Structure formats: C-alpha cells, structure tokens
Amino acid sequence: DRARLPRSGGLTPEARALAWHHRGVAFQKTGQQDAAIADYSRAIESGALPKAVLARAYYNRGIAYGQEGGSGAAERDYRAAIALSPGYAAAYHNLANLERRRGAHESSIASYTAALEHMQGRDRRLPLYGRALAYERLGNLERAEADLRQALTVDPEFDLAATKLASFEALPHRQSR
Asked: What is the DSSP string of 76-98?
C-alpha cells in the first residue's frame, strides 16, 4: 500500500514527512498527479515538514492540482506557499497565471509584479510576458508594450514576446505614431 511505504523503518515524524514529500515529487515527475497530491497532503498534514520544505510542498501540490484541473485548490496552495515564504517568486508567478486566466487581471498584475521583485535574470521574461497579457486585457497597451520590450531585453530571442509586440505595432492606430 502506497500510504504505508514511508511508515516503515522507524522513521522520525520529520523523516516520514520528508519521505512523503520526496515520493510526491517522484510521482509528479512520472505523471501520477493524484498520487503526488496524496503524498504532498500527507506531508503537509503531518505538521513535521521543515518550513522551507513545507512551502515547496504547497507549491508542488499546487502544480499537481493545476495539472489535474483544480485551479481553486492550486491557487490556495500557491497562496499558502507565499505565506510561508514571501519571496517565493515561482509561486507568485503561478498564482498570477491562474488569476489572469480567470479574468482577475488587476490581481494578476500585482502577483506578476511580486514575482518580478523576487526574480533575477532570464526568468523574468515569463512574468513580464504574463503581466503584458493582463495589461492588454485591461486595455493598457502602453504598459503591455513596455513589459514586452523589457522581456525582450532580458531575452532577445523570446519569440512569444516578439510576436505579441509585433501584433501591437501592426495595429492601425499604432502605425500613425
């Protein structure tokens, strides 16, 4: 039985919780999202994970929930990861993507901005792109264009940003500038 495996061997509560977490990672990598969610949940509910690992467990479970179509559960887990680790840039980014997809563009902009505050280098291109999409949906093409240009500064070969920027520049009201 999967639930019993980490219980063997006289493990301490922390070691057992870590075993569930690590096994959750393995299940997730092999596409077994339900099993991963179950193990992450066991690890979280044990109350024995170190704080830094607990934040990762919520984040990882959020990804698994998202892959299974559970965007509400994923959003709750990303928020829990952020509460435990306020500098968790990837959790802010994934939360922002969910917010944007459900039409909460103002919230997604705030979450993308928080992700950017905690990110370095080339990784910044993705939240810049996502924030540009949110600005576009709100009708703020100037801010969207600025983010796309910044994403291309970070990664000059970022085709999604280049294509989206070209589509803005092709708009009739933009050509007369």
From this structure: HHHHHHHHH-TT-HHHHHHHHHH
Torsion angle defined by CA atoms of residues 84, 89, 92 and 95, in that order, rounded to the nearest 10 degrees: -100
Give me the amino acid identity at 45. Answer: E
For residues 90 and 52, give the distance between their C-alpha atoms in angstroms, rounded to a whole number: 14
Residue 177 to residue 170: CA distance in whole angstroms:
11
Q: Which two tokens stand for residue 13?
A: 């509560």
Q: What average pLDDT does this structure show over 62-69?
A: 94
d(CA 40, CA 18): 9
Helix (H, G, I), strand (E, B) or coil at 68: coil
Q: 127-177 pLDDT, tens per residue?
A: 999 999 999 999 999 999 999 999 999 999 999 999 999 998 887 765 444
Residue at token pair 């280098």: 121
Q: Which two tokens stand for residue 62?
A: 């959020």
By three-state DSSP, how is residue 49 classified?
coil
| Integer Cα distance of 61 and 36 in angstroms | 7
